[in-house]
Amino acid sequence: MVNNSVLHIAPENTAGVPYNVMKMQTMNGMPSRLLTFYKIPFDFPEDVCLNLPLPRSKVAMKWREFKQSNLQGKIKKDNIDKWTHLPYFEPKNSAEKAYMKLRENRNKPKFLKALDEIGGDAFDIIHFDGGIDFFSDSQLAKAFKMKGKKIVNCYFGDDLRTRGIVRDMDEISDLNLTFEYDHTLRHPDINFLFFPFDNSAIDYISDEVYNTGFKEKVRIIHSPTQRIIKGSPEIIAAVEEVKKSRDIEFIVVEDTPREELMKIKQTCHIAIDQLGNRGGTGYGINSLETLSMGLPTITDMNCGMDTWLPENPFIVANKENLTEKLIELIDNEQLRNSTREASRKWVDKYHSYSSVFAKLTEYYQKSGII
Fold it and tell me: CATH number, domain at 168?
């Protein structure tokens, strides 16, 4: 058995981050594997994916948006601080509990077969990405703990905002990690980690091409995965206001294969990620791609993240000032160029495999995992 080997178990390869963590660890001498339950509808690579059925129709997506909106409404009604609120996950009623158990029992043989084939018992560290077990009673995590394995819960996106924390998983974890700044305000014992991002295959747009090469008009891109979550209606409204006084081109790109989307981004001058607090506190993979290309990237940052983020490379905007920020960027070529020069350097400094692995190793050591 290889020391310090890691098995990642995750519902899905969220934004490609679990796969990148696995890849980063393996490249740095910590052999790792990733076992996911569901295939995400994007072109991110997988290791071992069960490809279990999961409703992803427009109706299903609308239902998830409704649940998130309903939670936000309840938080507001009960006068709860939305940035420090930590929900706990549990079935809402007996019907939901029964459905979860039925789905679990139906998929159990396939999961256990894959776990056995990947050699689950041979790993030293078990990352539950999402902080959730395959089994609703966390029986797998408990069994691994009894065998002396180190348990790491790693949280993404809405895991601690909407779904909530699983009590049993929280109680047995040796280390809690998050890639989301606001999670550090919600959970009393969690450690922030910049998510690893390999931009070696992303070309930085040269000054010649960016300034003179492909468009006379300034071209702005917004590529949301979910419009409501990313604040697209507000973004579109702000851009329409800009169009009244500036001759620009604005494109909204959705449901497009990643490779094609990357090519489109390479033809743009400015990127807008999100507005509001429905899509998290600031940025994700989408922004790291545009920053790596050298595109000035606009996003909204909440709960103090704009001042907390070291050497913040973003143009920070909100619903009230997005129009103003856009006009400033459109009119000031020098500002666009100075912003883009720092962008890729920032991604390299904080999100590179070497930087993130060093920080993760530090957390492992402090927690007695290695």
Answer: 3.40.50
